[in-house]
Each structure stands twice: as structure tokens, then as C-alpha cells.
Amino acid sequence: MDITQQGYVRTDLTTDGVAHILFYHPAHNSLPSRLLADLAAAFTAAGENPDAKVVVLRSVEHNTFCAGASFDELGGIQDFETGKAFFSGFGNVINAMRRCPKIIVGRVHGKAVGGGVGLAAATDICFASKWASVRLSELAVGFGPFVIGPAVERKMGAATFALLSLTPNEWRTAEWAKSQGLFQESFETVEQLDAYLLQFCQSICASNSEALLELKKVFWQGTEHWDTLLAERAAISGRLSLSEFSKNAIAAFKKG
């Protein structure tokens, strides 16, 4: 099977109203177009489900939370429209998270790269283990974190976004990411992370749903133009991914 067609997204809804959206891909939880579309659909469905009181984003089966864009799919892009459509997948997920009327909690148990950092930034509140180091690797392969940029900048600020964008080969610790606002808590172990996550979600489920809805609106004020903005950013990434620099860098990366 084509590796870009592997992996899955599923939603597990607990009896007390926690919708766990889980994703997996054999290449360190990287995200091809199919999984990006499934993630966007999962957030939309969770937002429309009256039994879901809070949403948790998590990945499974790897020590890596998310390796970002699928290099297998990136390496096969041959034209601008295909490239724009691929990067629009990340924009569609972020906008689905933004529009979802439920509070979205991030559970980042391991490393987050590129688009994985964007997913963490698009949650309403995010908890991590100490293993959740982060980097924005896009510049190293010829483009930049254009589509996820607004979400990262919203959480971490313009100066920190610039630093991450311009140091694509440097890992930053979970504690550093917490100090910059990406994570709200970081824990020594995944077990501690999950224990706190359970307690936090129970508290949210017991809260006034109308108040939570109004808070969600407040959290995302000023982002109403993101449908257009992220599409424009996807066009930039799609164009740059066709450059000789990017093609050579992606090929070298895939060779290891």
C-alpha cells in the first residue's frame, strides 16, 4: 500500500463526554492529505455532537507526537495546484479547530515538528510531557511555516515565531515551549500528563456549556479572516515546494 494512504484518524467518545481525536501514521505520525482531511472532519463532527463536551487531540503508537507534513507526499508534488491543495490541508485543520464550538485540549506526549507544532498551537489549551521538544523545520527544506504561522504566532508571539522559523535545525525543550506559551503545563512523565489531563477534562465537562462556548469565541476573536489568510499562505508554500532547492532538500531528507 502507498504509505500516504496508511494511518488513521478516529474519535473515541467517553461516557462522560470527552471526545478523544486520535491520529496515527507509520512515519512518526506525519500527516498526508488524507489524514489532514480526516482530522478536519473529526473536529467538525465533534463540534456538532451534543454528547461531546470537550475535545482532546492526541496521537498514538509512536514516541513522536507529530512529524509534520508527509515528505512522501511532498516529494511527489509536481505542480502548483497540487502543492497548494496539500498545504491547504493544514489550513483546513486549523480552521476546523478554530470554528469548533467545543474547547480543544492538546495532549503532546513527544516531539512535535513543523505542522505538529501548528496542531499544538491551534488547540485552546495544551499540555505536554518533558519529551515534547519542538522545532519548525520548514526553512531547511526550502519553504517556511507559512500556513501554521498564524496559529504559532497567536500562541507564542511574533518574536518567538521568527526565532523558530529561522532556526529550523534547533530543538527547543518542552519547558522552553511552556515558557513561550505553546504549552500551559509540562510534566515529567506521560503518566503524570494523562492524570492531569483526566482531571482537567472532568472539570471542563462539569462546567456550564454556554459559558464554555462564549469563552471559545473570546479565545479566537480577531481570527475571522483566517479562511482567506491560510489559503493565501498555502499558495506561498505550494509555490516554494516546487523550487529546485526544495526538491533537492526533500529528496536528501528521504534518503536519510
Task: Provide a descriptive summary of the structure in words.
The chain has helices spanning 33-48, 71-74, 80-99, 115-122, 149-156, 158-166, 174-179, 190-205, 209-219, 226-240, 244-255, and strands at residues 8-13, 18-24, 54-59, 104-108, 112-113, 125-129, 134-135, 185-187. The strands form two sheets. It has a six-stranded mixed sheet with strand order 1-2-3-4-6-8, sandwiched between helices. A two-stranded parallel ribbon has the order 5-7. It has eleven helices and eight strands. By secondary structure, it is an alpha/beta fold. Helix 3 (80-99) runs parallel beside helix 4, helix 4 (115-122) crosses helix 5 and helix 5 crosses helix 6 (158-166). The chain starts with 7 loop residues before the first strand and ends with a helix. It has one domain: 2-enoyl-CoA Hydratase, Chain A, domain 1 (Alpha-Beta Complex).
Write a concise keyword list for the protein shown above.
256 residues, 2-enoyl-CoA Hydratase, Chain A, domain 1, 11 helices, globular
SSE blueprint and pairings:
Elements: E1 8-13, E2 18-24, H1 33-48, E3 54-59, H2 71-74, H3 80-99, E4 104-108, E5 112-113, H4 115-122, E6 125-129, E7 134-135, H5 149-156, H6 158-166, H7 174-179, E8 185-187, H8 190-205, H9 209-219, H10 226-240, H11 244-255
